[in-house]
Amino acid sequence: MTIFEKIVSGEIPANKVLENDDFLAFYDINPKAPIHILAIPKKCIKDFHNADAELLKGLNEFIKEVAKKVGLDKNGYRIISNIGSDGGQEVPHLHFHILGGAKLKWEKLG
Ligand code: AMP
Question: Which H or E run contains 58?
Answer without folding.
Answer: helix 53-69
